[in-house]
Design goal:
By secondary structure, the chain is of the alpha+beta class. The protein has 9 helices and 11 strands.
């Protein structure tokens, strides 16, 4: 849990905000995420808002699509509300750490075995979505929320919700993502103005694997552990046709793993003690958090 700032909303719909989910100043978070509780104290949720400077209409449209998803491995959107200028979404709270917070709790890059487990679950989630023609379009470190039972993909549609802004220097024109996007997760063809597609999801998955293993979304090849180097490089190929399908990523990360048992699992996975402690501490702090006695 991170303390609220002066400019954070005291309420989101019928919920009273308690804390931020993401660390203050954290880069690459495509939406504002809060822990919040109903006024009667009976329901605690993770509530999400568009980022400052983002397009509320685009963000709301993606949130509506996310609310229709039933695919395993995606962070669910259970409730939508607000106005055109102030849309929000919410889902019942469960202890969850964004991937950057996982690395912070662990004290650095994660062990290769855990990177493989997390990457395999994310690859399976993307594979199940891609079969149905669903492109996530928001895979990034902050979009990976780790629970005791494994990772879930949030920030659905971030690359579609945040239009590219064009800048020019002399005769060169380059496109850079608007606020909130992790540039290292944006495939070259998307940065050039292309639409989010399955190959872009795989590129971003490679960036997430690199981040979990090194702490950077764009590391030098030599920084990536040898056992992960080839699959990360393949996912991050500049040529979309050279990127593997998510099912192949799963097979490379977890040879012999049974398809269908990773994404959205209901049994706890093996996590380092410091990460388990961070999840437990968050849960205890949420339970102990008192509603404000007056509006800020």
């Amino acid at each position: 849990m991170e303390k609220l700032r002066q400019d954070d909303p005291p309420r989101i719909g019928d919920f009273v905000t308690l804390a931020r989910l993401d660390a203050d100043g954290r880069r690459g978070v495509p939406e504002r995420r809060y822990l919040a509780r109903s006024a009667d104290g009976g329901h605690t949720v993770v509530a999400c808002l568009p980022p400052p400077g983002g397009d509320p209409a685009r963000w709301a449209a993606e949130a509506q699509q996310a609310a229709r998803l039933t695919q395993p491995g995606f962070w669910p959107v259970a409730q939508l509300g607000g106005t055109a200028a102030f849309p929000w979404s919410a889902t019942p709270y469960r202890p969850a750490l964004p991937l950057p917070a996982v690395l912070a709790a662990y004290g650095g890059p994660l062990p290769e075995a855990l990177v493989r487990t997390l990457g395999g679950a994310l690859a399976e989630a993307l594979a199940s979505a891609h079969v149905l023609g669903i492109v996530h379009g928001g895979v990034c470190p902050a979009g990976v929320l780790l629970t005791a039972c494994g990772p879930l993909l949030g920030c659905f549609g971030a690359t579609r919700a945040h239009p590219l802004t064009e800048t020019s220097e002399t005769t060169a024109t380059s496109a850079t993502p608007a606020v909130g996007l992790e540039t290292g997760c944006l495939a070259p063809e998307l940065a050039a103005g292309g639409s989010a597609d399955r190959a872009g999801d795989v590129y971003a998955l490679g960036a997430v694997l690199a981040y979990a293993a090194t702490g950077h979304t764009v590391p030098e090849r030599a920084e990536v552990p040898v056992g992960l180097r080839d699959i990360v490089t393949a996912c991050r190929s500049r040529d979309p046709r050279g990127r593997p399908e998510p099912a192949r990523v799963l097979a490379e990360l977890l040879p012999g793993a049974a398809y269908g048992g990773l994404a959205g699992a209901t049994e706890p996975i093996s996590l380092p003690g410091r990460v388990v402690e961070a999840l437990s501490r968050q849960s205890a702090e949420v339970l102990a958090a008192a509603l404000p006695t007056h509006e800020r």
